Amino acid sequence: MSLEETTTEENENFDFFDYYAQLNNDNIILSYKGPLTDVLLSEFSRDIRAKLQDNRRVGKKVFSVFMELTQNVLYYSKEVNHFGDQDKVGTIVILQLEDHYKVITGNQVMKEAVPLLLEKCKTVNSLDRDELREYKRKLRDAPSEGESRGAGIGLVQVALTSDNLEVKIKNLGEKYAFFALFVNIKK
């Protein structure tokens, strides 16, 4: 879990052909960056369920993680679409790999929120299944923290469904950072 700096040179070295090749890779179930709406999430949900219907047990886990992480983007993203309804903006990727699925979400956050986000993820990753269940009960009974709607319960639920959470943070200037969460779900 680290904070990376973005340079102008990195921004100017975008290779569209590499991007296109990666998008055409067969292992991508979903790749989206943009405003998130209830209608769009409903469509994504339908598509994900259809693509993962061969293994219902794992498909339910992937879907559950997708919903939890996407709700986090909807609640906490600091980037908004400036056209229409001011919808929150985020990135969602679901990959199918040889032995697992990877769900990745990302969104802008206030830079001052980064230490708390990292601490929550570190705490969740340090607990075993029984400790996670106990921690989840404790969070349910605790008063919510300021802007937090679920006080980290969603992250705990994701950890109960998957491997450890992997977090990457990229500095976006003085005020914002990009928070990316990577979650693996075994097949």
How does this model look, in words?
The protein is α+β, with helices and mostly antiparallel strands and 187 residues long. The chain has one domain. 44% of the residues lie in helices and 25% in strands. The chain is built from seven helices and six strands, in the order E-H-H-E-H-H-E-E-H-H-H-E-E. The protein has a six-stranded mixed sheet, with helices on one face. Strand 5 and strand 6 (176-186) form a beta hairpin. Helix 3 packs antiparallel against helix 4, helix 4 (56-76) runs antiparallel to helix 7 and helix 6 packs antiparallel against helix 7 (153-161). It is globular and about 45 Å long. 22% of the residues are buried. InterPro entries: DUF6272 (IPR046239).
SSE inventory with pairings:
Blueprint: E1 3-4, H1 8-12, H2 16-23, E2 28-35, H3 38-51, H4 56-76, E3 89-96, E4 100-110, H5 114-125, H6 129-141, H7 153-161, E5 166-171, E6 176-186
Parallel strand pairs: 1-5
Antiparallel strand pairs: 2-3, 3-4, 4-6, 5-6
What structural keywords apply?
187 residues, alpha+beta, 7 helices, globular
Summarize the structure.
This protein has 187 residues and is an alpha+beta fold.
Helix proportion: 40-55%
> What is the helix/strand order?
EHHEHHEEHHHEE
In what order do the strands lie side by side in the largest sheet? 1-5-6-4-3-2
| Cα gyration radius (Å) | 17 Å
- Structural class based on helices, strands and sheet pairing: alpha+beta
Uncertain segments? 2-9
Amount of beta strand: 15-25%
Major sheet: size, sense and barrel closure? 6 strands, mixed
Number of domains: 1
The averaged pLDDT comes out at: 88
Number of helices: 7
Principal-axes shape call: globular
Q: How many extended strands?
A: 6
Distance between the termini: 25 Å
